[in-house]
Task: inverse folding
């Protein structure tokens, strides 16, 4: 479970797969009318108070649930004004899938090897690249223009890159998770390294 204070009236919580083993309240069965969900939310409010000092226990709150990757999900808790007539409801966002070009590096130095692959294949255009650190591992994202993402040549490049990293599956990790909870190590590292090679 990861907590992030947005402001004095809003906290964002990431419920990870391992938390589900302990609390057994999944995104699918989270419901304001369910006793175990309400017990889980009360525990969560106590956890927020003990970790951040923010006390939502005596406040009206809005609870929003947003699906994450795999079985994880986010809960955003917002304190409502005392005059608000809103009851506590859980607002759930629909799940969505998306294909991404995101890779876990075998080691951080592999970013130089990947830059070398792109340097040898200058005809393959890239829009942006980023490098992140999350939970002791290093990740690399690459944005390709739509016209690049097809053909045998493109798949050969991806195969060459995966000598130094592994392509991440959307169901396990995505860039939104890295942006929110990881550390951005470098913006456009491939372009910067290639500029040094010229």
Result:
């Amino acid at each position: 479970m990861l907590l992030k204070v947005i402001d004095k009236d809003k906290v964002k919580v990431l419920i990870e797969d391992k938390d589900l083993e302990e609390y057994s309240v999944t995104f699918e069965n989270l419901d304001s009318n369910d006793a175990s969900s309400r017990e889980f939310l009360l525990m969560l409010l106590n956890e927020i108070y003990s970790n951040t000092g923010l006390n939502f226990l005596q406040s009206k709150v809005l609870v929003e649930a947003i699906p994450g990757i795999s079985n994880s999900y986010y809960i955003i808790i917002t304190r409502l004004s005392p005059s608000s007539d809103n009851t506590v409801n859980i607002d759930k966002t629909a799940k969505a899938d998306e294909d991404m070009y995101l890779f876990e590096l075998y080691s951080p130095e592999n970013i130089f090897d990947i830059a070398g692959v792109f340097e040898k294949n200058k005809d393959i255009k890239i829009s942006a690249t980023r490098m992140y650190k999350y939970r002791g591992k290093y990740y690399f994202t690459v944005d390709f223009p739509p016209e690049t993402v097809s053909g045998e040549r493109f798949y050969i490049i991806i195969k060459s890159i995966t000598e130094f990293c592994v392509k991440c599956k959307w169901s396990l990790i995505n860039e939104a998770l890295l942006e929110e909870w990881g550390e951005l190590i470098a913006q456009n590292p491939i372009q910067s390294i290639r500029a040094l090679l010229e």
In short: The chain is about 30% helix and 30% strand. Confidence is low (pLDDT under 50) at residues 93-99. The chain has two domains: 2-92, 102-197.
